[in-house]
Amino acid sequence: MATLAQAPPSDSTEEPARTEAPRGRWRRHLPPYVAISPYYILFALFGAFPVFFSFYLSFHDWDGIGSMKFVGFRQYYWLLHDSVFWHSIVNTFEIWFMSTVPMLFLALVLAFLLHSQVRYSAAWRVAYFIPNVTSMVAMTIVFGSVFAQAGLANSLLKAVGVDGIGWLTSSLGIKSAISLMVIWRWVGYNALIFLAGLQAIPNELFEAARVDGASSRQVLFRVVVPQLRPVILFAIITSTIGGLQIFTESQVLFYSDDPGTAGGPGQEGMTIVLYLWQKSFNDLQFGYGAAMGWILFALIAVFAVINWRLVSGGDRDDRRGIPLLRKGGRNGR
Amino acid sequence: MSRRRLLGASLGGAGAALLGLSGCGSASGSISAGTDHLTIWYWNGSLSAKLLATSARGVPGARGLKVKGASIAGDYRGKLRTVMAARAYVPDLACLNSPIGDYFPDESEFVDLKDLGADAVEDEYLAWKWKSCVSPSGRMIGFPLDAGPTALYYRRDLFEQAGLPTEPEEVAEATSTWEKYLQVGKTLKAKAPSHPYLVSQIAYVFRMALYQSPKQFVDADNRFIGDQEHVKRAWDLAVETYRQGLSARALDGTPDFNSALSGGRIGTINNAVWYIGGLKDTAPRTSGKWRLTTMPDGPANYGGSYVGITRYCRDPEGAFAFLKWMLGPANQLKSYQEMSLFPTTPAVYSQPAMREPDPFFGGQIPVDVFGPAAKKAPVIFFSAYENTANTPVYQELTNVETLGKNPDKAWRDAMNAAERALAQRGVS
C-alpha cells in the first residue's frame, strides 16, 4: 500500500529525469491537466466542436439528415442578397438601441439611489434582480397579453386619455414592446453591476464633492460616471452582445403554427437570431443558418471593438468619457 | 492507495465513462436494439395511450411482437431529425406530422411500405390520404394516421340575429361559394347587433381556398407554380375579405384572438376537425351556439399525421403488422372515441360510436359534416419546399391586413421572395 510518506522521495527521483527525458516531464505535468480535464473535455465536445462544425457547415447545404453538399461561399452570397436578413439586422440594432440606452441610464440612476442610504436596501436589490432570473418564455406570454389590443398597456394609456397603440401591429409598437421587455429584464442586473462599481469609489470623492456643494445630479455625472467608466464599458459590451442576440422575446411573442407569423407583422420583430432559428429549424437550411451565425459573430466582434475604443480611448482625459459614450450610442445605431 | 492514484483512477473512470457515453450508440442505430420490443415515437395526443398499453404487452394477432410507445415532449420534429442525423437511438417507428413532404428529400430513411404489402389494405383508407403518403419517386414512407377534413364553423345565434339562414343545410346553400360567403359576411356584420366579423384573419380564407386546389406552390417536378391562377385566386379572395372589412385582424392564438372568439366578435371559422378541441378550450362560454356546415366551395383537408417505419427497424414486417392493427378501422374508431383523432378509414364514419351528438354544436353530429368532407377532399401534392414557398405569402397577407400594405405590391413582394427563397434551394 502506497502512503503519502513516499511522495517527497519520488519527487527527488524525478528531478534528474526532467532534464534527461521529456517523457518524465510530460508525466509530471499530466496530473494537473487530468485534474482539469472534465472542463476541457466537456468544452471540446459541447463548445469547441459545435463552433468549428458550424464554420464547416456554413459552406455546405444540409437539411440535417441527408448528405451535406459543398457549396463554397454560396450561403454567404445568398445571405448578403437576402432582404429579410438585412431587415433583421436593422431591426436588431433598432431594438438594441431602444433598449440599451434607456436601460443603462435607468440602471445607473437605480444604482445611485440604491447606493444612498435607503431602508431595506437588500430587499430592493433582490426585487430589482428578480426579473433577470424569471423564465423569459413565461414572462413573454404575460407581456403578450399586456401588449394586446385590449390589454393592460392600452387600458392604462386610455385611462390617461391617450389613444391605444398597436403594440403588436405596428413597427414602432413591436420594437417598443420588445425593448420594454428587455429593459424590464436587464435593468436590475445592470443596476447591481453599477452598484458594485459605485461601492468601490472611495468615499472621499463623495465627501469632497459634497463639501464643494455639488448637487446629487452633479455628483452622479461629474463623480460617479467618470469613476465608473470601466464598469460602464463592461455593461455596454455585455448588453451589446446580449442585445444583438435578442431572440426569446420576439419568438414567443409571435409564435404560432402559422409559418407567416415569425417576427410579427411586417417582420418588424424579426431579429438576426430569430431569423437564424427560423431558417435552420423551420426551413431546415442548416448551412444558411450557420453562415448567419458567423456573420453575427463578426458583427458582435466589430461592435465589441468599437465600444472598447470609444469608452476606454478617453484615458488621457477623464472628461471625455461622457461625450464619447453618447457618440458611441449614436454610432451603435 | 495514494491520494494521487485515487484521484487518477477516479478521473480515468470519469473519462472512460465519457468515452463510453459516446461509444455506446448501438451498431444497429435503433433505440430498441437488444430489447424484446420495438419502439414507436409519438407526441402527446397523436396515438391512443390505451392501445399502446395493449401493444406493449403484445400486439394482438402478431405472436411475440411487442411495441412500446415513447411520448416525446417538446420539439418533436427536431428531436426525430436529430437522432436520424446521428444514426443512433432512432425509433423503429415514428409519427410524422404533416406536411410529410418535409421528409421526401430523405425518403431513404424510411422503409417503403409497399414492399411490406401495404397495397393490400389501400382500399380501407381515404384515397387522397393514401396518395399523400407516397413521395414523387413512388416510395410510400408513411401510413395514414388521422385526417383533418375541414368545415365552416358558424355562430347560429349571430346568423339568426342578422336574419340569415340558421340551419346547416340552409347555411351551406347560402355560402356555397366564397363570393356568396363574403356576401353573407357583409349582411352578418351589418345586421347582427354586435357587428361581428366574418373571419378572424384573412390567412384562413387564403389557406382554405388554396387547400381546395390539388396544386400548391411547388409541383412534383420541383417547379414553382405558386404564381399561377390557383394561388392568385385564393389570394384575391383573402384580399377581398380584407377590403370589405370582414376580418377581425386577430392573429391566431394571441390574447386578442381569444377574446374576440369568446366575445362573439368572430362569426365564422374555416378550420379542420381537430380545431374542435381548440375552440372548446378557447371559448367555452359559447357552447351550444356553434354549428358546422360544408365549407364554401367544398371541403378540403388541413393537417393530419402519418406513421413511418425507419430504416433502422430490425423487424419491418412486425412493425407493419403493428401499423395494420393500430391504424386499422376498428382501432381508428377507438382512437376517435378516446383522443378525437379523426379516422382515415371512411368505413367507420357510419358507426354509431362516431355519431355522438355534440352539445357544443347544439346537439349536431359533427361527423355528418366532417365525414362527407373527408371523403371529398382533393388529392393534394405537398412538396418538400412548400413551407419555403408559402411563408412569404402568409407574411404578406399579414402585412396587408395589419399594416395596410398595398395588396398589389404585397403580391409582387411575396412572389419575388418566394422565388428567391426557392432558387436558393435549387427549385425554380
Could you explain the architecture of this structure?
The complex is a heterodimer of chains A (about 325) and B (about 425). The longest helix of chain A is centred in the N-terminal third of the chain and has 33 residues, at about 85-115. Chain A contains 16 helices and two strands. In chain A, helix 1 packs across helix 2 (about 20-35), helix 9 (about 170-200) runs antiparallel to helix 12 (about 230-245) and helix 12 (about 230-245) packs antiparallel against helix 15. In chain A, strands 1-2 form a two-stranded antiparallel sheet. Mean pLDDT of chain A is about 85; it is low at about 1-20 and about 315-333. By secondary structure, chain A is an all-alpha fold. In chain B, about 45% of the residues lie in helices and about 10% in strands. In chain B, strands 2-1-3-8-4 form a five-stranded mixed beta sheet, sandwiched between helices. In chain B, strands 6-5-7 form a three-stranded antiparallel beta sheet. Chain B is globular and about 65 Å long.
The neighbouring-strand order within the major sheet of chain A is 1-2
How many E strands of chain A? Answer: 2
Helix content of chain A: over 70%
- Average pLDDT value of chain A? 84
Which protein chains make the most extensive interface, counting residues with beta carbons within 8 Å of the other chain's beta carbons? A-B, 50 and 50 residues
Total beta strands of chain B = 8
Which regions of chain B have little confidence, pLDDT < 50, spanning 5+ residues?
13-26
Helix content of chain B: 40-55%
Oligomeric composition of the shown chains? heterodimer
Estimated share of beta-strand residues of chain A: under 5%
Q: What is the number of helices of chain B?
A: 16
Terminus-to-terminus distance of chain B: 71 Å
Radius of gyration of chain B, taken over Cα atoms and rounded to an integer in Å: 25 Å
Give me the strand/helix succession of chain A: HHHEEHHHHHHHHHHHHH
Structural class of chain A: mainly alpha
Radius of gyration of chain A: 26 Å
